[in-house]
Amino acid sequence: MYPKVKIVATLGPATSSPEAIESLISAGVDILRLNFSYGTHEEHEKSITQIRSAANSLGRNVAILQDICGPKIRIKGLGKRMTVRRGERLVMAKKPSDESFSITHPELIDSMYVGEDIFFADGTVHTRIVEKSADSVVLEVLTSGTLAEGKGVNFPDSDLALSALTQKDREDLVFGAEAGVDFVAVSFVSSEEDVKEARKIVRQAGGDAWIVAKIERKSALKRLDEIIDASDAVMVARGDLGAEAGLFRVPVLQKEIIEKCNVKAKPVITATQMLTSMVNSSYPTRAEVSDIANAVLDGTDAVMLSDETAVGSHPKDAVKVLKETILQTQHLCKASGSTGPDSREAFVSAAVEISRLVTCDFIAALTHSGYTARHLSRFRPQKPIHIITTQPSLVRKTTIIWGVSACVAIEDFSSEKELTGKFLEKSGLKPSAFLLVTGYLGEKIFQGKSVRYINRCDLDRY
């Protein structure tokens, strides 16, 4: 059995060595995330080289997700980690000093007001403005926690006019395109225009990465359908989303976002604090395991680890916990019940229904862009999905799609016999029978969609 829900893990100081990367891939990671809030281009380039080398040596298709910073406001000028307690007062100023700290966009202090709430570190530290002067605000701590340099700051009461793409993001997008990353996660998306602008920069730089929109702003929730339509995939970024929209809304928002993505056949990643206790502990809490299982049951395509693998003491164990929880839960996954197939999905839907009635080892889908693969996955077949494509750049991108067991790129073909032969030879599979679903491939032998049942007798005749 293999995990149908995909595993994303973040690289960091704890997993920067070639041995650590290989260990994560061996444990079951499908996509490795590079957090561009930290590190230089030279360091990220080294990580990309190490990931490609480790994946090749292990014979695995492993994708790279470039997560750009966006206009995330962060703590600046705090010399050391600081534990704060309820009732204490802090000073946030335009210029840091021994008595105060600042933020990466200090000019925003001008637009703050007494009574507004400010959250730090993924919403774990809640403060409120109780005094304001020309150059600073005084904050009262409402929930205890830890502050550190670079931790995020959220202003749920303010509508901050900040573009989703900073100059650094634009430079990072060009670097990622030239380095050949497979996915780009765009932070703090507010509209479909943010997604389109990121895609334009990537394409102009020669890249073909799929664009992943991170849903973490209240403004994104207002335009959710448009953002999903414009994106190749979506991430439920629960940390900032909780700070922006309210912690207690996150479980329902997670379900709503995943449902919309499932209906539109757009892959969706559930992220943030999946296994926070395992940053220090070698064993998860029952609540964390339930959280992972519920994300799987909600219909997520992938789950993501952040600090657990970036700075945690037990990165490989955290991946194993994700994998085991997925394996114990995925048999209950069902297609979204809110909508049935439309006319464009008739053949993939039929293939899933047929796979329940006939003896077959898997469903193979021939696709040029990934469209057929995504829409086949949407109906959550119990049989493994194998992807066939003539586009090598698509191979690693299918690692984000629920249920995909493997993807192989083949050379051009002129007949179904040649297609089948090349697929089986390249994959090393020896099925007794399988279903073959074909999408539109232009001026090929398949100029429309089809479903074929291919059994051992057919293969022997080939």
Amount of helix: 25-40%
CATH-assigned fold name of the largest domain: TIM Barrel
Task: Give the number of DSSP strands.
Answer: 22
The second-level CATH architecture of the largest domain is: Alpha-Beta Barrel
Which percent band covers the strand fraction? 15-25%
Low-confidence stretches: none
Helix/strand structural class? alpha/beta
Q: Overall mean pLDDT score?
A: 93
CATH class of the largest domain: Alpha Beta
Q: Mind describing the biggest β-sheet?
A: 8 strands, parallel, barrel
Detailed description of the structure:
The chain folds into 3 domains: 6-70 and 164-330, TIM Barrel (Alpha-Beta Barrel); 73-154, M1 Pyruvate Kinase, Domain 3 (Beta Barrel), CATH 2.40.33; 343-461, Pyruvate Kinase, Chain: A, domain 1 (3-Layer(aba) Sandwich). The model has no long low-confidence stretch (mean pLDDT 93). The two termini are 30 Å apart. Helix 1 packs across helix 2 and helix 1 (18-27) runs parallel beside helix 11. The protein is α/β, with parallel strands linked by helices and 462 residues long. Strands 1-2-3-13-14-15-16-17 form an 8-stranded parallel barrel, surrounded by 7 helices. It has 15 helices and 22 strands. The chain has helices spanning 18-27, 41-58, 167-179, 192-204, 218-222, 224-230, 238-245, 250-263, 286-298, 307-310, 315-329, 346-357, 371-377, 416-427, 456-461; strands at 6-10, 31-35, 63-67, 73-76, 82-84, 89-93, 102-103, 117-120, 125-132, 136-141, 145-147, 152-154, 183-186, 210-215, 233-237, 268-271, 302-305, 363-366, 385-389, 404-409, 433-438, 450-455. It is elongated and about 85 Å long.
